[in-house]
Structure formats: structure tokens, C-alpha cells
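Much of the work behind modern protein science is quiet bookkeeping, done one molecule at a time. The protein below has been through that process, and both of its lines are reproduced in full.
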Amino acid sequence: MINVLLVDDNRTRIDQIIETIADASLSPEVNLVVCESADEARLELSSKYDLLILDVVLPKKIDSTPHASVSMSLLSDICNARKRYIRPTLMIGLTANLDELDKYKTEFSKNVTVVLDGSIYSNDWRNDILGSIHSLIGNQLKLIQREDDKFLVTIHGIRTHGQWQQDLKSNLDKYSRDFKSIDFKYGFFDLLSFSIPPLRNKNTNIIAKRIARTLEENIDKDIHIVAHSYGTYILSRAIQLCSEQVKIKSTIMCGSPLEHNHNIDHIIMRSEVTINECGTRDSILVLARCFILGLGDAGRVGFSREHTSQFFNRFHKGGHSHYFDQKKSPNFYQKFWLPIMTTGAKPSLHDEREAYFAEGLLDITIKTLTFAKPFFYVMIFYFLAISTNKLFLRWFDF
């Protein structure tokens, strides 16, 4: 993630820059801080910024008269080694008042990389700023490529070979070829074993132990985990088996069939950030919640817990596997996951939920079927027992 400080009192231009960054899908990789006066900027400049975008004609305080001398004074303080301010890596001047700039152009140009014509009716300056941001991100990624202490763990769902795991790794290699990874695979999981809790838990424990052992062996690395569908169920068990020394940089769950009230404290406590990606149109999870004991639809409705800096649900329009759709550019994990893993970008909230007709009726139906689910299993086992008994009696009579 790169840190950008925008010092400008022109609200239209501020909105244009925010829009430019969002349209380029760079919001997860750019931490943009906006100040509308020189005094506000001075407070911020005690922190390190990669890019400073400075309005040439700026007010000293909010609602005071803008003047180029104010910006010149701020720039002089930034570049003074005796002052407490930290000079940004790259500085760009921005103004639509070129006449005012002429009085200070020589001095201003000594310290900034370039001065752009920031007319709100032009796109040229927006493209130049975007180019500078891309350059800074590219330079940051080159530094990351030298690191070899990052470790990715992926876990796929049932009835799949997890092709997305290799696709994710291939995309990750474009940013850092030294990013170590391991894809946990366990083949197709038959529906009978999946539907009966004792059988499901037996198979889960076998895989969870392998994952826990791997996490223990890589305790000295920055661990990132991505688990899809039933992989989140396995992950929950694996984290329970780990020692307290295992710490995780980021945990990303998507399409999770865990129950929405499932306790994931053990995952959140081990991770710097835990994200639960939800598909609002995930019909597979509706079926899981309605008909399979011990499972729910946390990957559709989210986990029922408060959002914090360590955990939040994100809601997207899509089904059970839309996270791995390669048709869009950037694709889902290029937009939402790779910035977190490669640049340490702070994940942002995302919510595409919309109210729709008969939403209440569907919710009541799902809750009713969920409540009745244990009785369905009792009835099934009852009829199986009766049928088995009849077959036994016929065989005995024979």
C-alpha cells in the first residue's frame, strides 16, 4: 500500500482524484488522506507519505483566503531538514491558476517533481497523477519481490480439484515470485460423508491436522490463508489444533458453509485481519443451511458478529464460486486479495446487498427449513431402520 497526501481546497478536484483512483481499481492499494489547508497538512506530515499532491494556491486555515505564498511556505518547511516534517518520496504541484504560479515558479519547481495544470475541465493532470501512483506501486512491488518470508496457504471445497488455487498462485507470481505457497487438496468429497456429521468430522480432522502441522512449520513467516467453501470448515478446525505461537497475517474465507452464529474467535485472535467474503446469490449455501446438519450459510449472510479492525464481512453480487471468475479484469482476487497479500494494503468494506421483492418470505422459508432440518434426519433414519428391519425379517423367515 502507498500513502498519498492530497492538500487542496478545491472540492471538485478532490472528488475527481478520488474517482480516478477508484476507477483504476487502486483504492485497496492507495491510502488517500485529504487536507484542505496548510495547517491541516502540517499535522499530517509528521508521518511518512509516498506522494504529496499540493495545490499551488492554498489557504492557511479552512475558509481563509487561498494564496500561493501559503503553499510556498508549506513546501519550504517540508524540505527544510531542520524542521520536524517528513518529506514525501514524490511531490506534485497542482493548480489551475497559472498566473499566480508564475511569481513562485522557480522556487516551487526546485522542490516538486512537476507542476501540473489542474483545470477541472482537463483529464491530462489526472492521467499524470495516476501514472505516478502506478510507478510508486510498481517500485513497492519490486522491493516485495526480494522478500522470501511470505507464505500462502489455500484450501479448496468439496467436489472440486481446486483449479482456482493455481490461478491465484499464478497471479501472485506476477507480483512476487518468492512468495512461497502450498495448496491443500483432498480430492472429491462424496456427498454421503459430507452430509453425515460423524463422517464429515472424521475426514475434516485428517486434513486439519495436515494444515495445522504446516502452519506450525512456517511459524517464522508472514502467513496468508485463503479458504473456499468447505475449506473454511476445515480451516476452523485446523486453527483450533494449532499452538498459540501460530500467527496469521490475513485470513480470507469465501463461500463458507459454517453457520452464521459459528464462533470464529479462535481464527480472529490468530489473524491480523479476517475477511469473510459473501455471495448474496449463493444458492448452494441455502441448500446447505436448509438440509445438511451442522452447516449454514455464513458465506451468504455473513457471520453474526460485530465488525472491527480485525474482522468484517464483505458482500458481493454472485454465487458460490464467482470469486474465481477469470472473465473480468481485474478479476476478483486481483482486486480484493492480492493488494492485501503483496503490499499490506488495508482491506476496505464492500457491500452490494440490495432489498428485493419477497426477501422476507425467502428468509422465513429458510429459517423454517433450518428449524425442521433435525426432524428430517430423524424421519430418514426412522424409515431406514424400519426398512432394514423388514429386510432382516424377510431374510430370517427365508
